[in-house]
Design brief:
Blueprint lengths: L10 H7 L9 E3 L10 H4 L8 E3 L7 H5 L15 H4 L8 E3 L8 H5 L15 E3 L6 H7 L2 H7 L1 E6 L2 E6 L38 H9 L1
Parallel strand pairs: 1-2, 2-3, 3-4
Antiparallel strand pairs: 4-6, 5-6
Length: 212
């Protein structure tokens, strides 16, 4: 699903739409929708079955992003929070946070962020802006810190991603190659176009799906 036109969906539209999305949905592009912290309770259930989620230009911060990957801490007097007791890990492999002012390299590498930690797996691709974006420049300036955590910048055409390196403990045949039936031949994460037929990803098809 792709609704990436800027501010196409209002806050009220999201409140109507998000609870109605089917659990069979695997990829959702909400870039430009008027998402705020108030929508996080509606987004969190979707992260349990989505593999790709794009929420660029949202009005959220790192605490909101963290809430997708770790349950809320116990309240006063509680040993375990209700959310923690019922916690289901997210299924996200790809997360697009482009254009969110609070999500900067400094915020991503801060000790309060869980984004780059092992606990966020199967998350393996973050998109924070295109190849000329200052966030990507900032990530490139943290090469040593990124490698220590197992993340590197990859780019193709105008796009760039922060990618988790595969674990050295996994044999090649044990690694997730990204192939899914709903991708119709594609293996990378973060498609910009919705495939409508099986095909080899190359030429103009690959250019407009991943490079632009």
């Amino acid at each position: 699903a792709d609704v990436s036109s800027y501010r196409l969906l209002s806050e009220e539209d999201l409140e109507t739409l998000l609870p109605r999305l089917t659990p069979t949905l695997r990829a959702l592009n909400l870039n430009g929708a008027k998402i705020s912290r108030a929508h996080m309770p509606l987004l969190l259930p979707l992260t349990k079955h989505l593999e790709e989620l794009s929420i660029g230009y949202s009005d959220i911060n790192m605490d909101d992003v963290n809430s997708m990957f770790v349950p809320a801490p116990p309240a006063d007097g509680e040993i375990v929070s209700i959310e923690e007791a019922m916690w289901i890990p997210p299924s996200l492999h790809y997360l697009d946070l482009t254009g969110i002012s609070a999500i900067t390299p400094r915020a991503v590498f801060a000790s309060s962020s869980v984004l780059l930690r092992p606990m966020t797996q199967p998350l393996e691709v973050l998109e924070l802006g295109d190849n000329s974006n200052r966030n990507i420049s900032g990530l490139r300036q943290h090469i040593a810190a990124g490698k220590r955590l197992g993340w590197v910048v990859r780019d193709l055409g105008r796009r760039a991603w922060y990618v988790r390196e595969p674990s050295k403990d996994l044999k090649p045949e044990e690694r997730d190659n990204g192939k899914r039936s709903w991708k119709m031949g594609a293996m990378w994460w973060g498609m910009r176009k919705i495939p409508v037929a099986w095909g080899e990803v190359g030429g103009l098809y690959g250019h407009y799906m991943f490079k632009k």
